[in-house]
Write a structure and sequence with these properties.
The complex is a heterodimer of chains A (176) and B (474). Chain A is an alpha+beta fold and 176 residues long. Chain A has two domains: 65 residues, ACT domain (Alpha-Beta Plaits, 2-Layer Sandwich); 70 residues, no CATH class. Chain A is built from five helices and six strands. In chain A, β3 and β4 form a beta hairpin. The longest helix of chain A is centred in the middle third of the chain and has 31 residues. Chain A is rod-shaped. With 474 residues, chain B is mostly helical. The longest helix of chain B has 34 residues. Chain B starts with a helix and ends with a helix. Classes of the chains: A alpha+beta (176), B mainly alpha (474). The interface between A and B is large, with 81 and 80 residues.
């Protein structure tokens, strides 16, 4: 269950944040969320995020694109309207396949790229007119914010977070 | 890292222009959507998927849309930063619209990194494919001078060559106008020059291969096409192309020339002109004299041709200038990952075993915690003050770097506003001789300097010596 109160610790340096995350994890506190202005390498592993599967979806979308291209070429150029262009008739798929390779490639890339990006936007809840959810405007600039759930241990937690190098600590009541 | 954003922008804007040409030349541009495979109401009728012109439709639209999505995804964090820093409500509204509500969660960044990687991987073969397929438009025809197998790699190299030259032209201006000297460095310009030199040489090899194969093939039409290019009525265009594209980049073998900004700019313009002539040579010389001598003619552009040409250039620059005015032209989230001055400091603190409490506090962090922190910072400062001057000198030199009089020549520090002959002497006795050293000074170093010299407190900071020194270095 999501705790109703969270503590927000601000950091100004990614190295300090990383060491803080490791300390917090070692103390077995649960990190709700971390907001950073740039990708901090190794942060996802340190805070225990599962690796992203978005590259796999991209591969699958690419396969879909390839299949779509193959079927489309087969239907349009062979089945539905076989043409005799310059004395080179379109009678069997295999004979004409080399001419379709560019289209197959382009559609594979088209599907892989666009569907992956759409998946990314939807999974991360991003679209035009979406309201941003970073709790502090400084987190897109040069500050890092770690959110930790509070279970009646705020005093102790505040002291602990200060020790990890946090420059600002706020207790937020998340009224649901 | 500093040039990718603008290079992508330039690519997208030029592809938009490139896409306009076939649409304009369709004759009935409002029926342009007929190039798409749309089912016909009157029975079976489809576009011809055997035609390289149709491959091109797919190649260019995929290339344009994927580049656009790649570019925009990279822009999201930077748009979000502008959104969160915007003061005026209108700007805030616009940037929150275009930033798609980017929040910068750890999971978002994890996906962002993966998506960027995959898109970059997809975009690379896409670049190859789009230029290859454009070259097929020519190479699969039977016109002498076009019907050559060297075309795909030749067009790819030519595209990289002219693309880098155009990036060079635009960014050298942008760097100056927007004061981006610290981000788009001379090293960037030098590396781009090396790419221009290498791809220019590849293009040169392709030109010569064309000539050789024309001779070697024994096809007299092919032989005549190339003889006509080099010695016919359009020889001036051919030799213009040769000298601009093959000869001029060879100057980049010299370190002095490729690190000179003015010279790089000059060569980039020359290459742009040369690549325009390359297209002119390929299209005009091959068409003006084909198999039938009775139809031989010279090309004279109408006002419509010239108008379309100038119009698309104008359209390109309109888009690019709008971009330069309103978009973050440097991929800032990326640059932030490598630009930091604080790393060393934290490492020192950690290794000395001291606590990290409040070490990162600045005037923008607020709350009760800060006051306690500030006092400890001040205590630290006081401690520094009380130590003797030579120690201060050492720490000052450690942070701005030392200067060896025997191997280096000192700069004229009097060029900095606020430094007189006397101050220069004082600086020299401390060990500061070069602009480079001065440019590395920050608030901490200024304070140290003030307490060493004891004269004109705050002067260096007010006059922004380090900023001035940075300008003097460039």
């Amino acid at each position: 269950m999501e705790p109703s109160k969270v503590i927000q610790a601000m950091y100004t340096d990614d190295d300090v944040l990383m060491s803080a995350v490791k300390k917090v994890k070692a103390e077995k506190h649960h990190i709700e969320e971390i907001y950073t202005p740039f990708p901090v390498h190794g942060l996802d592993k340190a805070m225990g995020l599962a690796p992203t599967r978005i590259a796999i979806t991209s591969f699958m979308y690419g396969c879909v694109g390839l299949i779509v291209a193959i079927l489309m070429m087969k239907f349009i150029m062979i089945d539905d309207w076989p043409q005799d262009i310059g004395g080179k008739p379109s009678f069997s798929y295999m004979e004409n396949m080399p001419a379709f390779v560019p289209i197959m490639f382009e559609l594979t890339v088209f599907f892989a790229a666009h569907l992956m990006v759409i998946t990314f936007y939807l999974r991360s809840k991003m679209w035009p007119f979406k309201k941003a959810e970073n709790p502090d405007p400084r987190t897109t600039d040069d500050h890092f914010l770690m959110e930790i759930g509070v279970h009646g241990n705020e005093k102790e937690l505040t002291r602990f977070l200060k020790e990890t190098g946090a420059v600002e600590i706020n207790l937020i009541d998340k009224a649901h | 890292m500093a040039i990718n954003r603008s290079a992508e922008a330039m690519t997208i804007f030029s592809v938009i222009q490139a896409g306009l040409f076939p649409i304009i030349h369709m004759g009935r541009p409002w029926l342009g959507y007929w190039v798409l495979p749309i089912p016909n109401a009157y029975g079976s009728l489809w576009v011809n998927f055997n035609s390289p012109l149709l491959w091109d439709v797919f190649a260019i639209s995929t290339y344009l849309s994927v580049s656009m999505v790649f570019w925009w995804t990279g822009l999201l964090p930077d748009f979000a930063m502008i959104r969160d820093r915007a003061v005026k409500p209108f700007q805030k509204k616009i940037y929150s619209l275009v930033s798609f509500g980017w929040s910068g969660r750890a999971k978002d960044w994890q996906r962002f990194e993966e998506v960027s990687l995959v898109l970059a991987g997809l975009a690379t073969p896409l670049v190859l494919s789009v230029h290859t397929i454009v070259s097929f438009d020519f190479a699969t025809s039977v016109i002498p001078g076009w019907h050559t197998t060297i075309f795909p790699p030749y067009f790819v190299a030519g595209a990289i060559f002219s693309g880098f030259a155009m990036v060079q032209t635009l960014l050298i201006i942008m760097r100056k106008v927007c004061n981006l000297e610290d981000y788009i460095t001379v090293q960037h310009i030098e590396l781009m020059n090396i790419v221009i030199m290498i791809t220019g040489s590849i293009v040169g090899v392709a030109y010569i291969t064309e000539l050789f194969i024309a001779w070697y093939s024994g096809v007299e039409y092919e032989q005549y096409a190339f003889l006509n290019r080099a010695t016919g009525p359009y020889a001036w265009a051919y030799w213009m192309m040769m000298s601009c594209n093959v000869f001029s980049p060879q100057f980049m073998w010299f370190k002095r020339l490729r690190t000179s900004i003015m010279f790089s700019f000059f060569i980039s313009i020359v290459v742009n002109v040369g690549m325009w002539f390359e297209r002119f040579v390929i299209i005009v010389t091959s068409l003006h004299r084909d198999y039938l001598p009775s139809s031989w003619t010279m090309f004279s552009p109408t006002f419509v041709d010239i108008g379309i040409f100038i119009g698309t250039i104008g359209f390109f620059f309109t888009l690019f200038l709008l971009y330069a005015r309103t978009f973050p032209v440097i991929a800032q989230a990326e640059v932030k990952t490598i630009l930091k001055s604080s790393g060393e400091r934290y490492k020192r603190i950690r290794e000395s075993g001291a606590t990290l409490v409040g070490t990162g506090t600045d005037e923008r962090t607020s709350g009760k915690v800060v006051t306690a922190v500030k006092s400890s910072v001040e205590k630290l400062k006081k401690k520094e003050m009380s130590s003797d001057k030579s120690e201060m000198k050492d720490s000052l030199m450690a942070s701005i770097g030392s200067f060896d009089l025997n191997t280096q020549t000192p700069d004229d520090l009097k060029k900095i506003k606020g430094v007189g002959p006397k101050m220069e002497e004082v600086l020299n006795t401390i060990g500061i001789y070069s602009f480079l050293q001065v440019s590395k000074m920050t608030k901490k170093e200024y304070d140290l300097l003030d307490s060493i010299t004891g004269s004109f407190p705050g002067r260096a900071e007010r006059d922004d010596w380090s900023g001035q020194a940075k300008k003097l270095i460039n």
